[in-house]
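Hey, quick one: can you model this chain's 3D structure?
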Amino acid sequence: MIFTSLSPNTQRDDFLLALKTILKPGEYFEGEYIGKVKKWFKDFFGVFHVSVYESARSGLYFVLKELGIKEGDEVLLQAFTCVAAVNPVKWTGARPVFVDINPKDFNMDIDDLENKVNEKTKAIIVQHTFGYPAKVNEIKEIVGRKGIYIIEDCAHTIGTEYMGKKLGLWGDAGVFSLGRDKAVSASFGGVVITNRKFGKNLEEKEKFLSFPQKKWVKKQILYTIVAFLTRTLYEVLFIGKLVHYIATRWNLVEKATTEEEKKEGEMPDNARSKLPNAFARLAFNQLRKIGILNKKRRDLSHLYVKRLSKIGLEEVKLPEWKIGEHFYPLRFPLLVKRRDELLKFAQERGMLLGDWYDVPIAPKQVDQVKTGYKQGSCVYAEKVCESILNLPLHSDLTEEDALKVIAVIRDFYL
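Sure thing. Here's the predicted structure for all 414 residues.
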């Protein structure tokens, strides 16, 4: 079975490390790996300040609070995103305002952004969707002179460059995810980088945060173990399916987003916590391999473009991406006709492709109205949601696997 999600970057060494980690509850919280992750980000991005949290959504929340975002303020962010990027804005009391996307690259549309900036706008969250760079230089030109803060949402990539500068270094702060389906799959975790003075305050305040609950931490580590076993043993006497069924049925693992977050926008019990050593240990193991992981993503992206363009299917539209030397996307998106039928067709042939994002504020269970999103306000985002398809780019995917994915797409339409 070919998977697009399910902790896709977890390899055998990560799995074995997760097994060791879960058996050492005394090392769940304090430990050397928290400092190692901070140092890695400082060295890799060349920044002065790094703070780490149990999730990227908490990191985003603390950045907004430190910048003075409060009730009565407006924060702009794009539709075609996840509720985890929206809720931190609501937790500050501010109002999220959604900007439409450019369907050519799935990032914030510059013209719509200009139309929605006003005197109440205090910050803009710039999402680099699927890891492709948003036009952050143009955004800076628009809002920089207005004193509006720019926060980069880098949840989908670590290391991609735009105009010779790494994503995360263009704005006032960059927020990265260490979550299960992100650029590294460390169960959970978030990182904030900045060269601004307020970064010192974030670092100092982080010291006084508590750790999340031990039970919750254990369930997140167990998710990594279960996901790896599910993927690698999926077709071995149904062992993988059984492992996944038992883990979910018996509530042994946690979902990435709680039901209260999705339906009510509530802050989870373990939010606003600092990064446990256990998560940092798993993350650091993958950060050391980021060059290998990123090269695979770039090479597979080239392969998809080359082969799908050669087939020339009218029903399949490729993103208008410029794939450079330092471009490392998380997933490869397509706009396709009869998307849901294609997903089913692919599953029947042994591959689970992705549909990020099939609603303007994902996942499907999210109450769109409660997020503040108004139907019809972001026309292109809504249209893209109906036809988006994501192809896998993770570390375990071979070139042969990618060619199989392409063949299934071809067979469906021909």
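One thing worth noting: The mean pLDDT is 96.
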